[in-house]
Amino acid sequence: MEILNEILIVGRPIIKSKAFADCMQIRHHKNTTIAQHMINVTVTCLKISNFLESKGFKIDRKRLILASISHDLAMAHAKELYGFSGYFTTAFRHPIDSFKIAQEICDIHEKTSKAITRHMWPLCIVPPNCIEGWILTIADKYIAIQELFHKEKTYEIKKINFLKKPVTSD
């Protein structure tokens, strides 16, 4: 299955949510939006997953997609949630709040919740405890560096144009 189609099918509840639509309006890492960042991370996670699966690793792709497409959902409301307490409070707290938002949208498995809540390792001291969590953590760091230091690099968000207008949860 093509990566973007797989993301759209598995991640549909998150992608169609108001929380994700809010993320389309907020700049992130200088050259992108929070929503685009989560899509970039998800595509990268699946590319890493494809490689690892070719080497015999077993990856729960559904859990990986749900974790990566929702790992920064709370960032759209960081000022409201954390006030002006700064980057470090946001960095430490947004994984837990992103999980809570994702849990309200769809059923989140424990493996998915741990991947979301631990993706800021090593800043947060508890490391991921499953391969999907490690993939998310690595992909998030890689994409953040790409977005900070290169011109906007996106994975065909134009194919997901229906996201440009705010949507509500079904």
Question: How would you portray this structure in words?
Answer:
With 170 residues, the protein is mainly α. It has one domain (3-162): Hypothetical protein af1432 (Orthogonal Bundle). The chain contains nine helices and two strands. Strands 1-2 form a two-stranded antiparallel ribbon.
Write the layout of secondary structure elements.
Elements: H1 3-10, H2 12-15, H3 18-23, E1 27-28, E2 32-33, H4 34-54, H5 61-70, H6 78-82, H7 87-105, H8 110-117, H9 131-149
Antiparallel strand pairs: 1-2
Features:
single chain, 170 residues, mainly alpha, two-stranded antiparallel ribbon, 2% strand, globular
* Shape type: globular
Model regions low in confidence, pLDDT < 50 over at least 5 residues: 161-170
Largest sheet: 2 strands, antiparallel
Structural class from helices and strands? mainly alpha
DSSP strand count: 2
Short structural description:
With 170 residues, this protein is mainly alpha-helical. The chain contains nine helices and two strands, in the order αααββαααααα. β1 and β2 form a beta hairpin.
